[in-house]
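User: I'm new to structure prediction. If I give you an amino acid sequence, what do you actually give back? Let's try with this one:
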Amino acid sequence: MSPNLRQNDGVLVDSHFPFNSLKIGDIIVFRTFGTTYTGQHELIVHRVAQIVNDTNGQRIIRAKGDAIDSSIPSLDYPSFQQNYIGKVVYVIPQLGANANNSGGNTGTNWIDLCNKISFALISSCDTLVISDNTLTSQGMHVRDCIEGGALLAGAALLLGTPATTIVSVLPTVAQLGGCSDVLDLSKLTLDQLKRLGSILR
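Assistant: Good question. You get back a string of structure tokens that encode the predicted 3D arrangement of the chain. For your 201 residues, that looks like this:
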């Protein structure tokens, strides 16, 4: 799906978006019609390339990845309503790269990043990041909490929740998510929320 979706990008999927309302060009998530050698249906994220109806009026979709020239039989088509999972409504760049990173030195400057978000941290950066630029276990917990909070905030914005409401409920969300021990979101401003969210980019 490159360049629109890249490896390690995260997606928010609307599983309630009706199959019969899909249009050519929509990016969807679906299970393949065909199976792998183990008998499993693969999970695919591709763009709707064609929509047809069979003789019974049942809608059939042919999808295609953006980075390839044509659809792949049994992978991209046929796709029926029972294969359909949902429509992609938002892309979170490189979410998987951060989540898969165990805190090792893989290019992210954790020390610099920690200093930039220190306004929301309960602990000091020297307890979260080791001098060789790897995260401590508490640092990984902070990273996961921030990513989760930014993901929830992004989803709420997409659903039309006012930004001020999001800011006001994040402390409660942090507490429910087991993050109130590492993040202090009680005095978070809208500007600071945007800065926290930028670590996903």
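You can read the tokens as a compact description of the fold. Here is one thing that stands out. Strands lie at 10-14, 27-31, 43-53, 59-64, 84-92.
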